[in-house]
Amino acid sequence: MPAAKPPEFRRRAVDLARRGDAPVRQVANDLGISESCLRRWMKVDDVDAGRREGLTSAERKELVELRRRTRVLEMGSVILKRASAYFARENVLPK
């Protein structure tokens, strides 16, 4: 998998492609990236700028963080339930 490009590189690549001096395919080849990659960057830029419907980068990042936190909290809940069941069994007096 190729290394991720820095945000400044992405922004400049999108700006070059939008200028329209050359086709997107040519701009991508000149920069050493795939055409689909450049088109995806353009789509993300459109969403972030509000020109297209979808989750912005910030919203997507927040969603990932919230899902991770929910997973951790659910795991903690399961652990507490198991622990309470374990200790409840130990406190039962034999007949």
UniProtKB/TrEMBL annotation:
<dbReference type="InterPro" id="IPR009057">
    <property type="entry name" value="Homeodomain-like_sf"/>
</dbReference>
<dbReference type="GO" id="GO:0004803">
    <property type="term" value="F:transposase activity"/>
</dbReference>
<dbReference type="GO" id="GO:0003677">
    <property type="term" value="F:DNA binding"/>
</dbReference>
<dbReference type="InterPro" id="IPR002514">
    <property type="entry name" value="Transposase_8"/>
</dbReference>
<dbReference type="GO" id="GO:0006313">
    <property type="term" value="P:DNA transposition"/>
</dbReference>
<dbReference type="Pfam" id="PF01527">
    <property type="entry name" value="HTH_Tnp_1"/>
</dbReference>
<protein>
    <submittedName>
        <fullName>Transposase-like protein</fullName>
    </submittedName>
</protein>
